Amino acid sequence: xxxPVCDFTVFGGTGDLALRKLLPALYHRDLEGHLPEDTxxxxxSRSEIDDEGYRAEVRAALERFVEPALLEPEAVERLxxxxxxxxxxxxxxxxxxxxxGLLKDRPxxxxxxxxxxxxxxxxxxxxxxxxxxEIGVVNxxxxxxxxxxxxxxxxxxxxxxxxxxxxxxxxxxxxxxxxLGKESVQNLLVTRFANTFLEPLWNSQWVDHVQITVSETxxxxxxxxxxxHAGALRDMVQNHLLQLLCLVAMEPPxxxxxxxxxxxxxxxxxxxxxxxxxxxxxxxxxxxxxxxLVEGERAASYADDxxxxxxxxxxFVALKAEVQNWRWAGVPFYLRTGxxxxxxxSEIVVVFKEPPHAMFPGAEGGASANRLHICVQPDxxxxxxxxxxxxxxxxxxxxxxxxxxxxxxxxxxxxPEAYERLLMDVVRGNPTLFMRRDEVEAAWSxxxxxxDRWEESPEPPRRYPAGTPGPFAAAALLERDGRSWQETx
Length: 489
Ligand code: BG6
Fold this sequence. Notes:
- By secondary structure, the chain is an alpha/beta fold.
- It contains 16 helices and 17 strands.
- The protein is globular and about 80 Å long.
- The structure holds 6-O-phosphono-beta-D-glucopyranose.
- 6-O-phosphono-beta-D-glucopyranose binds near residues 216 and 235.
- It is an enzyme of class 1 (oxidoreductase).
- Catalyzes the oxidation of glucose 6-phosphate to 6-phosphogluconolactone.
- One of its GO terms (molecular function) is NADP binding.
């Protein structure tokens, strides 16, 4: 069904996120006929450009970030026709009446859903919401969208949540974690709970351990200003990786509703074993890339990317976590993420225990443990590793084989980008795939001891050459437990 008419206001409308992700996502929905006619998109930024100037910038962005085959001139014009631009600064009161005027300029002004998307630095979340309240545009049909990271640590996250919460009720607040909008991440829930064969095995009796990897080949690019202040733990682990962990570990909700899934995820976050300083030293590894070769090309060091002499910010994290509950007690969850690694892959691997009894002693090859690889990107799909008999008249020879499910070949459909799904959920008012306040704060509570310990530790991040799987210590973290990272071939 068609979503309601909406005025979609993007703060940071000329920024990287808006141009690279948000506007292309809105374009795709529009292309498929999912934006009602009167939908308007209002870009807000400090740039002194008019509507035409903004349209030109967005046109260039669409040409760059939308797949050429999907760039239809008529649809491009339609989207550009919806655009407005307002030059505003959250730090001053000037010009805000213009936004008020624009939003009120509708035949039946209160009918439209008002989305306020804060694609700006977290320090501006609170002040922007306060200005919106002052100019009187926050009504029952208003929603605010916040990008992660929400704050810099638990204390600042609470402050942001309080400030935003003094203007918007929790059901009007949408905290985006775009990983939750990815098709393959949503499919994880379906795989687990719409099939019978996995769930009986999905526990400490049969699962040896779980690995979650989000590796990127890109460096920090032009985002150094933000990134150097954040680091990989805040940028990726506190949100994306912990959310993936939650979806793997959570109990089945009774149905997929606005709160149930979030309730179950929260319980997982609360069950994560708190880390002592000694645990942090033993079970976490932080790294930073130095110059190297990525996919055959020279890549500079992180410090050079920043244009700084040195920095102690981590661009890589590996750690071992444990979910202390009945289902998962004793099962390690190994997480790792980094920039400038050897390849781009986001993947969850569930490694099952060895069969209880070795029936084919002496057989060549030997049975290896079953593993389920859930590939989030780039090749969305699933692979179940099994052991099979190699055909032949002689003795029994065991061979590792796999059952492969590829989304691309199974479904003759384009997988929408995460933001397409999530932006429409905001317009429709469906918060299921967004992080609730208590989830965000529970995730910050769990990473807090790591942040604290790293800050006081004199040991800088371990260096790893760009284009490699991270520092050796990350491999050692598993080897110590008699395990190893499962690399996809
Ligand atoms: C963002 C991080 O949230 O996720 C980036 O801020 C990271 O640093 C990006 O590159 C990764 O997203 P994706 O969808 O490309 O895996």
